[in-house]
Amino acid sequence: MKQSLDYTIWPSRLSRIEYAFQPIVNIHTGVCYGCEALLRNWENDGIPSISRFFDGAYADGVLYSVDLALREKAIQKFARLEWKHQVKLFFNLDNRALDSLEYQSGNTLDILKKFRFPQDAICFEISEKHEIQQTDEAVRTLDSYRDQGFTIAVDDCGSGFAGLKLLYHTRPNFIKIDRFFIQDIAADPHKKMFASSLVNLAHLMGAMVIAEGVETRQEYFSCRDIGCDLAQGYLIQKPEIDLGRLKNRYDHIRELSRSDRRYRKGRDEKLILGEMTQIDPLPHTCDLTEVFEKFRRQKDRTFFPIVNDNGEPLGVIDENSFKEYLYTRYGGELLKNPAINKNIGRFITRHPIADVHTPAEKILEIYSQNENMSGILIVDNMRYLGFLSAHSLLKVLNEKNIVLARDQNPLTQLPGNTLIHEYVSRALQDLRARQVLVYFDLDNFKPYNDTYGFRNGDRVIMLFGELLKARTEYSDWFAGHIGGDDFFMGMANVSLQKATRHIEEIARQFASDVESFYDPEAIRRGHIIANDRNGAPQAFPLLTVSAAVVFLPADRDRVFSTEEISKLLTREKKTAKSRPDKISVARPPKGPVPDQVNGAEPPVKLAAWRRMRQAAQ
């Protein structure tokens, strides 16, 4: 029996509690996968924090009862959501409630039936902040939740002292990386390394990863790049008390993902879908005799995926689990024993999972961490799609490398003209974001090439290419090689001041590093003697780089054409070469859309791109 709350202050406190809900979305598509229920109005009784709210309930001996009352309150409200059958409700469970002697199986099921809420739609979040004292009792409680169809998430992973011990005991379906590791992750390599390790561990365990507290584009891109499956935070939406403000898809996240050149070119879902094997899953409610017959009829299958009522994979049942039954004379009869037949959970083993939108390289990373693994379960928005074997994964990677090779400059391995044009086109269409477009041209490259030879000239070009690669630390920044000694760089969502500082640092570093490509006498003089275009000897300064810059402010009122940008960069390149700092910045003029645009951008490249393409032909 659950403990009564009568004759205490808790009924009045609970009556004032309200719930807000914050969406948890697919990091690749923006589709809402679930919502976390978050307490509101707890401070009305003078309680300084949510932690103190639960500490008080624990001290008064009513924590489990308070928890049940809060579950009912959250489920009752969330059940009013029109599209509730499409999402999960993530409910925070205080670890100390797992040790309660009042726990009874079925209390949550009764609440769900009362409000006609889907049983598979509940995920209990367990936090690291409190260590589980009675481990055996807590594990039995969590196993009971799992048997009832609920899923488990470890919240605030990395923030508490329970750490790997909690992951070991809970065997979670989800791991939520704490906000501490997400904040400024793009600029902190140690945080990125730690979070990436958690992602790899989670995927190896067959769990999916939720990045908590994602607030900026840079944090979003970093979380997606290290392999997080889901995201939650202010960048998506703040917690909402009004259910009507929640969305089943957040288009700005989908567009953010699509806008990123590196990700878009790395999206391998078509290749993965083409190579994926369709292995029909079995429902978690099936009898073991059904599984036994499946193995008998399909002798080529070594395992079958098991899914819940929502189509989400719980793991696999492989033939090794059935050896003692498959290869004995009375194996089939033994499986008819109710004590064994109805307990399918004991035969399910967790298996690594990857979203179909995950780059093939990340899937390979998951696979490579377990040599006994035959492949990866593929999901879309957490729902089972099929199985990607190791052989098929290698085929996907090979095909992807062939495609990438066609789009890269063979010397620097930077994106070539096609990808540069695509990047510029998308940047011009994105009116909301600030864009900085940079055309780099090496000064005095031809005299150097004539004097020191093509091999050293190629080394100079590769040196500058590496400098650009090192500067594209954010996923929405881009570096490309137009051809010869012409390069391009795009920086999104950055101030002109910061962009200029990056360009100046690139120019300084190049001028310093390239000195090692000269002989000591040339360095001492500060120039070389080479023939000019008319064949006359002339002194040429050591190599430097000029940068023509076009700055596009945020919230622009029209789409500029590539022809307009081409003319601006061509003009600014001449100006940059004559300036002491070798940088010239232009802003496109304001005014009506030119007649030749008419709402559609003509396929016009920069003059230099056309020149280099013609030269290549």
Protein described:
With 617 residues, the chain is α/β, with parallel strands linked by helices. It has 3 domains: 10-259, TIM Barrel (Alpha-Beta Barrel); 273-399, CBS-domain (Roll), CATH 3.10.580.10; 407-616, Reverse transcriptase/Diguanylate cyclase domain (Alpha-Beta Plaits, 2-Layer Sandwich). Helix 3 (63-78) packs parallel to helix 4 (107-114), helix 20 crosses helix 21 (454-471) and helix 21 (454-471) runs antiparallel to helix 22.
- For the record, the CATH architecture of the largest domain stands as Alpha-Beta Barrel
The end-to-end span amounts to 82 Å
Give the DSSP E fraction (strand runs of 2 or more residues): 15-25%
- Any idea of the CATH class of the largest domain? Alpha Beta
Major beta-sheet overview: 8 strands, mixed, barrel
This entry's quaternary arrangement is: single chain
Taking pLDDT < 50 over at least 5 consecutive residues as the criterion, the unreliable ranges are: 261-266, 593-607, 609-617
Mean pLDDT: 83
